[in-house]
Each structure stands twice: as structure tokens, then as C-alpha cells.
Amino acid sequence: MFETGPVQLGFGVDYSPRSGGDRTNRRDALRLGIAAFAAPEVLRGSEDEARELTRRSEETEIGSSTLDQVRQAIDYYGYHYARYDADEVWERAGGDRRHVARLLEHRMTLKQRRELYIDAAWLSLVLAWAAHDRGEVRPALAYAADARHHADQADHPEAQAWSWDVEATIYFYDDRPDRSLHAVQRGLALAPVGSPAYVRLLGQLARAHARLGQVEPASTALADLRREADQQPVHVRGLWTADAARAWSIAASSNLWTGQHQQAQACAQEALAIYEEDPSISPTRLAIAALDCGMAWLKLGDPERAVEHGMIALSTPRLSSAIAARSSSLCLALERSFPDAEAVAQLRHALKELSGRMKRQAAIAPPKPEL
Asked: What is the architecture, at CATH level 2, of domain 273-364?
């Protein structure tokens, strides 16, 4: 330590002549070096460097108002999703998703980047639902996977769970209940217990087991669903919500697939009564409950009531591929069981009109509502 001078230590500059002269006193040099290191100018330099590092970490090209606007759009889609046609949501939410992708190219804080990743996940979930309602399986699965990726990068398990929920629905209506069950199990491992995502996934679990003919697991899942649904509101608006009405509807579908037709009819009627109190909240769920009720009446030997409930479903103002698929199943079952019934022909005609409306809607560029 005492054999090394301040120049070698980096505390000063050697101004001594290159030849001749006395050697520097090393003790004095060390003392002077330490004094120089502790000088206010040097300390200020160290503080300025630290402040500069902090300043750079706070540099951003994204204002708080921009982030607020993105969040407001997401909240609006979630709350008013059922008010708009799937094509309208697809166009507008797609524009917002691209806007978030452009924002992520800017300089921002780590906290802002995480927030934008979460926003990207929610918007991709909206697009996955819209694609599903439009009957486009591959884009729906792609956006569900995109939502899951961004939610995972942002360490947001709830959004991840919702991505598995929508994927389970996509596979379910694509007649792949085994893949649906796999997605449900992945989602339940992530969803916070008691959250709306958790309750929704329990319903998915029940109907996936039922669709696979697994009666005992389906019954267990339904019991768990009813227990959780008791903690939820009876009927609530929103894409990211769970309520008791949905639990009744899921129970109706599950009981149909396990052959418990009387129970299915009672559960479907219970759900339908709730949905009909305010049809604007869940028009798609209302139609599905009506179709479950119609199928139950068919299995119980009453084709007139089956057709009546099928017509309720086909009168929905909000079209979706799920309604078209379930209506077609009901119509085919009626034609097989009651081929000469006049009411069945009426339902078939209404189903053709629904298919035509969906095709025309897909062919025409949708308008741009102020979402």
C-alpha cells in the first residue's frame, strides 16, 4: 500500500521532471491522494453520475395520458363487448392492438413496458373472443397464444388464465373436447382461487368432462362451480366476469351431455329466466341457454317446445358461430327424431336465414363504431 504513489493509484498526474530530483515521499503522497479523493469536486462528480444513471432509467417517450387511454379502451371492450357485433370489435380492437405494438417500439421505463405488455395481453384476448365469435378458429387460437405470451412476460397469471379460458372455448366449439380439457387444466393452475377467471374455468372443466362422457368428474366440477358461483353476483355485464347465471347455463349443457335431461331442462330454464330479465347483458349466453332448453325438451319428447326455444335463440341481435353451431345441432336432432313435424321446417328456415346473415356480414366491411 505505502509503496504505491498517487499517480499509480489514479489520484493525480505526475508533473515531476523525467530525470533527476528526489523521490516523492510516499506517505505524503498517499495522504494527499486521499484528500484529493475526498474533495467536494470529486464527490459531486460521483453524485452527478448516480443522478445521471437515475435520470436515464426514467427517460420515456410515453406519457401517462397515453397509457390511460389504452387502459380505458380495454375497460370499454370488456364492459361493452356484448353490445357490438364481433366484426366491429375485431376491427377496432385490432387497431388498438397495433397501436400498442407501435408504442412498445418507443423508449420507456421498465414499469411502463410491463404495463403495455399487460395491455397487449388484454387486447389480444378481446381479439381472440371476436375471432371465435366470427367462426375463425386459427386466428382465435393465435391471439390467445399471443395474449398468453405477453401475460407471461409481464408475470400476470390472471391474464394467462383468461387466455386458457378462451382457448378452452375455442377447442370446445371446434369439437375437440380433449384439447379443451387440457387448456382448462392449464388455466386452473394459474387462476387466482375465487377470481372470475377461476370460476369460469371451473365451468369449462365441468362441460369438458361432460362432453367426453366423464360423468363423475363432471359432477364434481359442477359441485365446485355451484359453490363458487354462490359468491358471485346473479348476473353481471362484462367479458372478464363470472356470475350465477352462467353456472346454471353450464350445468344445463353438462347435464345434457351426461344424459340427465330433466335436470338439464330445469337448469336451462333457470338460466334463461335470469338472462331474459335484461337481454342486453348477455345475448349470446341467453341464446345458448335457450338452445340447451330446446335440446332438453327434445330429449323429453316435446318437439314444439324444442322449436320454440330454438326460435328464441335464432332471434338474437348478436350473431356468433357458437349460436349457429348449437342451432344446427338442435335442428339436425329434431329432423332425425321428428322428420314430419311442421315446426321443424320453420326452425330450419330460420337457421338458413341466420347463416345467410353471417355470410353477408363477413363479406361487408364492418363500420367503425366509436368504441
From this structure: Alpha Horseshoe (1.25)
